[in-house]
Amino acid sequence: MTIAVLSVASEAYPLVKTGGLADVVGALPAALAPHGVAVTTLLPGYPAVLATLRKPRALHRWNDLLGGPARLLTGTLDGTHPLLVLEAPRLFAREGGLYTDALGRDWDDNWHRFAALSRAAADLAAGAVRGRHFDILHAHDWQASFAATYLRYHPVETKAKSVVTIHNLAFQGRFDASVFPALGLPGEAWAIDGVEYYGGVGLLKGGLEAADAITTVSPTYAREIFEPAFGMGLEGLIAARGGRVHGIVNGIDPAVWNPAVDRALAARFTERSLGRRPANKRAVEIAFGLEPGDGPLFTVISRLTWQKGMDVLGECIDSLVAMGGRLALLGSGDAALEHAFRLAADRHPGRIGVRIGYDEPLSHLLQGGADAILIPSRFEPCGLTQLYGLAYGCVPVVARTGGLADTVIDANTAALDAGVATGIQFNHVAADALTTAIGRAVSLYADRERWAMVQRRGMRADFSWAKSGRRYASLYRELLSA
Questions:
Q1: 48 phi/psi in degrees, rounded to 5
Q2: Which tens digits make up the pLDDT trace of 6-35?
Q3: Within this chain, do residues 230 and 346 fall inside the same structural domain, yes or no?
Q4: Contact partners, residue 400, CB within 8 Å, separation at least 6
Q5: Number of C-beta neighbours around residue 104 at 10 A
Q6: Angle at CA 366, nearest 5°, toward 399 and 166?
């Protein structure tokens, strides 16, 4: 029996993307198809999404979806898999980012925008559109998690089960209590086991209370969020629902991330043709104004935030250069961190190169040309950049947390001798620990034979969606048979 899944999210590659969430949501339909699961993706009707629709057809209309009209349009996510788009111009037709205005400030009505998306998803799962049946409602992060809440309190009884995936528990969608009356929920939902959260409304909290299953994007993160240090105030709820929490590591899409066919590279290569890789390194050096050197070329492709440990990296820049390393950084985030990295580039011309912003093709080139990628995150639910690094022979140097711990094998002596090492891990996110890890990378890079062995072992690792897709399909079947 084919399982019909409605996957609802605020972004999906290749239509709209601000981070790894989009990559995961975009990859799920193809990942699940071999396992008897048919995924339909529901997205907000941002201008960029509407522009991709060819001859869109209105499948359903709401005269009043949380205060205004809306339409459900049909399309395809990638030319193959079905897409539904919630067209509500009052909520989504605006200039700026997906979640922020042109000045980077959160839209004041984000609660309204994503509650409407969630309500539309719940209506679909409850059978609002004739001929469209869904067995599973799978909601991603706080922007969509309220779909499980609306399904829980829906006036139409349904057999559909709900799954909420936590991509990052730090982002919870917390809003003032004054928004509750506009959410269209019964009064009973305003309760500690409902949507009330420290006197306000918690969109993610409400979804986690209502979901039939909760997943995180790595097994280690699934264990970590039971602890106050990682639970972000929700560890009590997680503990209470512990039997419903599952850790399923993310995968990567080899159709998008494959150095053998990647057109963003100056030279394509495989694990058997690493000799072609230096052409990409030279292209990175040119793009970032870096001088050639004998030491390793490190890269950072990241949001420049505290969570990502970028403040700690800033403390290590001078040491990295002193050890013979160079750095090509691509990212944006906190203004103070952006400024600090620009100053580092000024201090070390030709050794440090910084691009503020995000550039998808350039991120591919960096993975294919840099020797190692630095990921000193304080917490990391899964992380995708280390997976891209492994696939492209860009050795990850990572903090031992979340998905980073699950996907990178530390190059200690035993692992090197056994030929299983794929990167370098360190425990404590502090300047001394990161500096030591960078030093280990510099020393290992000097042994080119062993360095190439680590590269090849990482490139041979299977982080495609095959295993993860099978795990999700198994979870869906467990829910439907319960």
A1: -65, -30
A2: 999 999 999 999 888 999 999 999 999 999
A3: no
A4: 410, 425, 426, 427
A5: 11
A6: 45
Q: What interhelical angle do 203-210 and 141-152 show, nearest 10?
A: 50
- Mind listing the pLDDT tens digit for each residue in 326-370? 999 999 999 999 999 999 999 999 999 999 998 999 999 999 999
Please report whether residue 256 resides in a domain: no
The pTM (predicted TM-score) of the whole model is 0.90
The residue segments making up the domain with residue 340 are 271-460
Beta strand 3-8 with 37-44 is: parallel
Q: Could you tell me which residues are beta bridge partners of residue 238? A: none
d(C-alpha 91, C-alpha 70), whole Å: 10
Residues of 268-304 as b/e, b for ≥16 C-beta within 10 angstroms?
Answer: bbebeebeebeebbebbbebbebeeeebbbbbbbbbb
265 is a domain residue: no
Give DSSP secondary structure letters for 84-148.
EEEE-HHHH--SS-SSB-TTSPBPTTHHHHHHHHHHHHHHHHTT-STT---SEEEEEHHHHHHHH
Give the span between the Cα atoms of 381 and 401, in whole angstroms.
8
Residues 377 and 423 in one domain: yes
The CA distance from 365 to 269, in Å, is 12
Tell me: pLDDT of 393 over 90: yes
The CATH code of the domain that includes 218 is: 3.40.50.2000
User: Does a cis peptide bond (omega within 30 degrees of 0) precede residue 14?
Assistant: yes
Calculate the alpha carbon distances from 424 to 210, 344, 415, 416, 442 in Å. Answer: 39, 24, 11, 11, 11
User: Does the residue 260 lie in any domain?
Assistant: no
Tokens 């467990």 locate to 478
Per residue in 261-303, pLDDT (tens digit) is 999 999 999 999 999 999 999 999 999 999 999 999 999 999 9
**Range 222-255 burial, b when 16+ CB lie within 10 A, else e:** bebbeeeebbbebbebbeeeeebbbbbbbbbbbe
- 3-class DSSP state for residue 421? coil
